[in-house]
Amino acid sequence: MEGVTVVDHPMVQHKLTLMRDKERSTKGFRQLLNEIGRLLCYEVTRDLPLEYVDIETPLTTMRAPRLAGKKLVFAPILRAGEGFLEGMLDLVPSARVAHIGIYRDPATLKAVEYYFKAPPDVAERLVILLDPMLATANSAVAAVERIKARGARDIRFVCLLAAPEGIKRLRETHPDVRIWTAAIDSHLNDHGYIVPGLGDAGDRMYGTK
Length: 209
Ligand code: URA
Hints:
Residues 6-208 form the Phosphoribosyltransferase domain. By secondary structure, the protein is α/β, with parallel strands linked by helices. It has helices at residues 10-20, 26-44, 82-91, 138-149, 164-173, 201-206, and strands at residues 4-6, 50-56, 61-67, 72-78, 96-97, 99-104, 111-117, 126-130, 133-134, 154-158, 161-162, 178-181, 183-184, 187-188, 194-195.
């Protein structure tokens, strides 16, 4: 599917299966989300440009590669997106963080914003939006619109599970935003949940209901 990367690495797939299991504990779920976050970060940054610089090792001089492109901003969509953040920051400790507080109204499934805070230089950075579940894409579309309004031009979206409906909506609304996901599930049910899915990611992370 154009613009969509399914991260089919065996470690990611194994951990995702553990997370789908309804018997997984809150602690286990959170831990796994963190671990997969790190692995997805590895994949979403795979094509970052490098430049060559002269350095001295203890033995000799050499030209060695280092990251050359834009600096990163991780932008979790609260609250479930927070589950990815620690793993991502483990890999890119110098990244900035934007918080986007959006919840979906359970009756209308529409996105409602309640908080937004982003670094001032977001326009010069690569923004990686984080939300474990790309379901209707209402929150994702609202988050992309919000961060674009702040000047962001280079945006990627990372999720754990995506529904075909959500991918279609996000890609049609924002074709410039590429998506990385660990799996594309079958469909959305009448309540906007991904099937077979893993339930409500936020509730499972935090032990709420
Ligand atoms: N959000 C979730 O947490 N789970 C779903 O299945 C859909 C949206």
